[in-house]
Design goal:
This protein has 293 residues and is of the alpha+beta class. It has six helices and 17 strands. The strands form five sheets. It has a five-stranded mixed β-sheet with strand order 1-2-3-6-4. A hairpin with a 7-residue loop joins strand 15 and strand 16. The structure holds flavin-adenine dinucleotide.
Amino acid sequence: MTLTQPSRTGARVERLPLARFTTLGVGGEAEVWFVSDHDQLAEAMEAPYRILGGGSNLVIADEGVPERVIRLTGPFAETDLTPDPGLSDGETVVTGWVGGGVPLPGLIRRLQKLGLSNLEGTVGIPAQVGGAVWMNAGTRYGETFDGLHTLEIVTPGSRRQVTPDDLDWGYRASGIPRNHIVARVRLKLRRSTPEEVQARMEFADSARKGQPKMKTPGCAFKNPGGVSAGRLIDEAGLKGTRVGNAMIAPEHANFIVNLGGANSADVHALLGIIRERVGVPLELEYELWPEEG
Ligand SMILES: Cc1cc2nc3c(=O)[nH]c(=O)nc-3n(C[C@H](O)[C@H](O)[C@H](O)COP(=O)(O)OP(=O)(O)OC[C@H]3O[C@@H](n4cnc5c(N)ncnc54)[C@H](O)[C@@H]3O)c2cc1C
């Protein structure tokens, strides 16, 4: 690990293995920019960059990536759930700003304790708020856009506030172009009770019972034409198949897990085996850094 330098605006800049920022635990080095205010964010965006959230939908190459990798920290990872008196009423709460770098699971737990509903359907998604917003992460019990009031989006040279109505969002898509950074959001929540929110969370979470507990970037492939990709991979007899230290999870065939010390070549080899053995074209669910081809 080499400390490069504090940047002109004071951002911490370090060359670090990206494996430590991903749920799969795989990924080589890059120059990581830890930004905690808008000046630092603007400076980080002066050269080619990527924005990294919870790293829960990524397979990053062992060679790392050549671009700067931005991490939202400080106030961009803080949560202000104070109701805005002008926009909240007996039924609805519009909060202060919640940073794009806030871990979603902790936010969901805080909302449950306050009895604030709308986002509990996203329970169990190990994203950061910005990453969850960017792809409108969700489950059949609810999605991130169920609880958004305002989004602050930053691009090189611009910062603007938009509402969901300004965006062409839909199933697992926000309509926000790649590398437009969701710096912070304000939430729109329904007043409920901690007990009711807890019950809805438990119901949504029960669907995850069969998922592996090991390091993973989530589901590998989208369901082709409504057919379960996991079932197709299972029917091809691939559960438990291992390459190096990566394995197709015995619990659920659409998950690749890191047994410890896996590298991206192991994961790519498994993805290749699945594509070859399952008779239908499969589209990747997670993102590859750098992109394929
Ligand atoms: C165990 C497990 C279970 C999962 N279950 C679900 C599920 O039920 N439903 C579901 O939808 N997903 C699920 N996922 C996938 C993943 O959590 C989601 O895709 C999530 O939205 C990724 O968010 P992230 O912050 O981890 O983003 P990353 O993985 O860090 O990045 C993914 C993409 O988002 C972009 N991004 C990240 N932060 C920002 C930002 N602040 N502004 C703009 N773009 C940004 C990145 O540049 C990248 O393009 C699961 C993953 C795991 C590991």
